[in-house]
Amino acid sequence: MSDLRARVAGAPITWGICEVPGWGHQLGADRVLSEMSSIGITATELGPDGFLPAPPAELRSVLDRHGLRAVGGFVPAVLHQPDRLHTELARVSAAADRLAAAGASVLVLAADSGRSGYESATELDHMQWRALVRAIDRVVEIGDHRHLEVAFHPHVGTPVEGPSQIERLLETSSVRLCLDTGHVFVGGADPAELARTAGDRVAHAHLKDASGELAHQVRRRRLGYREAVARGLYRRLGAGDAGVGMVIRTLEGAGYQGWYVLEQDTVLERDPAPGSGPAGEAASTLAFIGRVADELEQPARADARRG
Q1: What are φ and ψ of residue 263, in 5° steps?
Q2: Tens digits of residue pLDDT in 257-280
Q3: Beta strand pairing status for 234-235 and 209-210?
Q4: How far apart are CA 182 and CA 233, in angstroms?
Q5: Whether the model pTM is above 0.90
Q6: Residue 261 is part of which domain span?
Q7: CA 128/CA 91 separation, integer angstroms
Q8: CATH code of the domain in which 300 resides
Q9: What are phi and psi of 146, to 5 degrees?
Q10: Which residues contact 72 (CB under 8 A, 6 or more apart)?
């Protein structure tokens, strides 16, 4: 996969589909997938358990009906508590089996805090961190056995959220990264700087822009995460402060060949009008990526003319 435009996928969270209980109004799968395909998206992450059918044949049939292929899925797991590890790894294995059967290539792993939602910070002590790193290695083995790349996702409200935790992860684990521009920014790091310094570790990318003001309130725990998302924490690409265009340019310049997943977390109160709401935001995001792709192609065209 070399063409930037051919490496863009969707995600159900852009349509408000979330694993957190009480997150918001949950649209049906056919509505979400049909709107994805209607704006030109041809690949998607799978979304939380229960959103799409579990049996592989049924899952593939639903995706095929909408002209979509599976690229990966978000799998949160409690990995820092040894007494829960057996159960959690069994759940991760089941998720990996489902991803592999669907033809996906990436398991996006997050270190779940063990609480519902993403409202509170989680600090691990030395022993808990060692347990986390060992468990991540186990998940990488699970992925390897199924030909899945494991990409670790720093995430607000989890044990790996802010700059120091991301740096510690990079130093203590060899796992590759899912660079989520929104979560990295809200957590207090610079997504473009992370792309520059750890671009060779990035295996997968989630793209969302974010409001600097609301991100600051979440970071300081003055505003809850879900409430911030409902207020518009995440913005269409180019309309926020996360520097998403620079992230794409930096990754592409470093030879990144992975997926860019349009993942603008949304909280819905009701069904939006067809083609509006999330579909409109996603279409705008696709247009933004197209403009970035055009910019990146201009020097190559100039070189070709000179040659």
Answers
A1: -140, 75
A2: 999 999 999 999 999 987 788 999
A3: antiparallel
A4: 9
A5: yes
A6: 4-306
A7: 20
A8: 3.20.20.150
A9: -115, 10
A10: 9, 45, 46, 99, 104, 105, 106, 107, 108, 151, 204, 259, 261
